[in-house]
């Protein structure tokens, strides 16, 4: 009888359920859709050979245009709102 080795099982990583609902849609429509739609219009005009790479680079470039906004959102406060001491 041949030597049998135990079968290894791999535990599946826990995955959060997909985000859904009105708050998520509102956030996506505000934060993502404008840049995504602009990039898709650019693709339709230029029809590049590698549209996903071009769109990805467009989105990266677009995200670099407003780093202050991204940092502000991640810090949880708005420096433009001044309080008097």
Automatic annotation (TrEMBL):
Top-level taxon of the source organism: Eukaryota
GO cellular component, one term: nucleus
Keyword vocabulary terms for this entry: Nucleus
Record region (Disordered): 1-22, 63-85
Compartments it resides in: Nucleus
Coiled coil: none
Listed Gene3D superfamilies: cAMP-dependent protein kinase regulatory subunit, dimerization-anchoring domain
Entry similarity comment: Belongs to the dpy-30 family.
Protein's recorded name: Set1 complex component sdc1
Species the sequence originates in: Wickerhamiella sorbophila
